Amino acid sequence: MSHILVVEDEMLIAILIEDMLEDLGCEVVGPVIRLDAALLLAHEAALDGAILDVRIHGGQVYPVAEQLLARNIPFVLASGYGDWALPESLRDQPRLTKPFWQHDLEQQIRLLMAKARASIT
Fold this sequence. Notes:
This protein has helices spanning 11-23, 35-44, 62-70, 102-120, and strands spanning 3-7, 27-32, 49-53, 55-56, 59-60, 75-79, 95-97. By secondary structure, it is of the alpha/beta class. The chain has a single domain (3-120), classed as 3-Layer(aba) Sandwich (Rossmann fold). The chain has a five-stranded parallel beta sheet with strand order 2-1-3-6-7, with helices on both faces. It has a two-stranded antiparallel sheet with strand order 4-5.
């Protein structure tokens, strides 16, 4: 079972993501709505992947993304902003453009899970 961190401060979106992950057999870590809590989990939790809303309570999720990169944990960035709004170091990461369709979310989750499995082997 994949453990996926969900960092999202919009409750309806968080519930949608959580339901879809559970339908795909994943265990959800979170959802987390604050930057400090997300940083702690990114640093300490046993994770196979993450879905990160770029802007959450407490700031932008970039330090969380950097921590996940350091731990070689794949993630997807969710944002309504274009690449120009991301730090250069994160522009090549998978993205979900808000608003997104359920199909788009499912596709990104499946890719995320495949990356998580590949990093284990």
